[in-house]
UniProtKB/TrEMBL annotation:
Organism encoding this protein: Blastopirellula retiformator
Entry similarity comment: Belongs to the UPF0102 family.
Top-level taxon of the source organism: Bacteria
Protein name (database record): UPF0102 protein Enr8_43530
CDD domains, alphabetized: PoNe_Nuclease
InterPro entries the record matches: Restrct_endonuc-II-like, tRNA_endonuc-like_dom_sf, UPF0102_YraN-like
Pfam family, any one: UPF0102
One of the record's GO molecular function terms: nucleic acid binding
Length: 137
């Protein structure tokens, strides 16, 4: 009874928050260890930081209710890639992980309003580091 009452007052999660939670569950099932979610710095935010084997993985999550116009991963354009590259390098510096291998993945989620479960497309090594930060390995 109390749980039902509390759930009526709970603010519903945004589509983006639901997508990030679904992406984290998906990656855990693949064996990734989630290190951070919504990691913020003065440069911006990394959706998910994970470890896959011995590789640090920076994951950008894109969630849409429909794929009519374009695939959600198409939103990770050159400008976004450059920003994610800067964020990834900053994260590695802050945590003294510059010697670690790293990569960028994109998890594209399509979650129509009338479905309980989303369609998840995981793109490993979605792009190479860009800009002045190509020394990334």
């Amino acid at each position: 009874m109390l749980f039902r009452w509390l759930s009526q007052w709970r603010k519903p999660q945004s589509l983006g928050a639901r997508g990030e939670a679904a992406a984290a569950r998906f990656l855990r099932r693949l064996g990734y260890k989630i290190i951070a979610r919504s990691d913020r710095s003065k440069l911006g935010e990394i959706d998910i930081v994970a470890v896959d084997g011995r590789t640090v993985v920076f994951v950008e999550v894109k969630t849409r209710t429909t794929s009519d116009s374009a695939h959600p991963a198409d939103a990770v354009d050159a400008v976004k890639q450059a920003k994610l590259t800067r964020l990834g390098l900053s994260y590695l510096r802050r945590h003294n992980l510059l010697e670690c291998k790293a990569r960028f993945d994109v998890v594209a989620i399509t979650w129509p309003d009338d479905q309980r479960q989303p369609t998840i497309d995981h793109i490993q090594n979605a792009f190479e580091p860009t800009g002045d930060y190509q020394m990334f390995s």
